[in-house]
Amino acid sequence: MIGVSPAYFFSKYGKAFHIDDYLHALPNVKKQGFERYQGEIYQSSRLKEWKTGIDKLIDVQEDLGLQMSQFVAHFLVAESTDIASIVQWSGPELFERVVRCVAKIPNCTTVIIPLPPFENTTVITSALYQQMWQAFGRRLSRYCTIATMHGLRLGLEIMPHSFLGGVDGFLHLTHQDGCEQIGFCFDIGHLLVSGENIPLVCAKLQGKILGTHIKDRKRGSQEVVTPGKGDVDFSLICQCLSAASYHGSLDLEIPCIPLTTDNCYEFGLATLQKIGANNE
After folding, report:
1. Cα 256 to Cα 77: distance, rounded to the nearest angstrom
2. CATH, residue 91
3. E strand or H helix at 250, and its extent?
């Protein structure tokens, strides 16, 4: 199964994209040959639109034979940007609203929260770090409980330089009480920029990978390109994902300009199909 990530939609409509943009774009997603897509709320102001429009979206995806592979609550990055946002949590109300919406979507069982780069230029004492770690763990434990109550699983998309630091920090979190079932969004770009070794990462994440963001990069560059235009060995990637017991959708994430979006994603789809990367 190969799908498109939220980057497909914000490439076409900008980062203020909303549920009506999904309704407009999904027929083209199907026409291009994709089977899956990812939902996303990029701005919290769009929560109400998703609540009122979710039933229509479900009807459209079912008519087209598409499925949502995972849902990204991107706006929740604001809860992990710095010391204050981690320690001073306002509560689970926004996450609960997302979960109630996603729980209605057939076969979509994953809610992803991205962790952004951690911004700080002041001294962090050991005591403050422990305070932050405990607060962060309590929040994620609460989110995990809420997701589970609605038949969903919580996952994290870890950007470079986040509070968790990388894959090892994520694994440390999953040893905390209440966080054992938190999963991982496998984003090739984030992992490569962070200096991670992909086969080693997949071995460490056995059974924990819930979804993917598939993209390519040229060696020595941080520029994202469509699969087949860079140096990533996607045959190896797919073998590693399979060995890690991930058999879900491979969702392309290629930020580009509106006029080139269709061509970029069609080229990426063809590249993955050429190596038999349907991940089934």
Report:
1. 22
2. 3.20.20.150
3. strand 250-252
Which residue segment(s) compose the domain that 64 sits in? 2-274
Per the domain annotation, does 66 fall within a domain? yes
pTM above threshold 0.90: yes
- Per-residue confidence at 163, pLDDT binned at 50, 70, 90? very high
- Reported as a single tens digit per residue, the pLDDT across 192-205 is 999 999 999 999 99
User: d(Cα 81, Cα 118) in Å, to the nearest integer?
Assistant: 5
Instruction: Identify the CA nearest to 217 among candidates 208, 205, 209, 226.
Output: 226
Chain centre to alpha carbon of residue 96: 18
Whether residue 182 contacts residue 173, with contact meaning beta carbons closer than 8 Å, is answered with yes
The pLDDT-based confidence of 220 (bands split at 50, 70, 90) is: confident
Amino acid at 22: Y
- The answer as to whether 279 is a domain residue is no
- Would you say 49 and 18 are in contact if contact means Cβ atoms under 8 Å apart? yes
Residue 58 in domain: yes
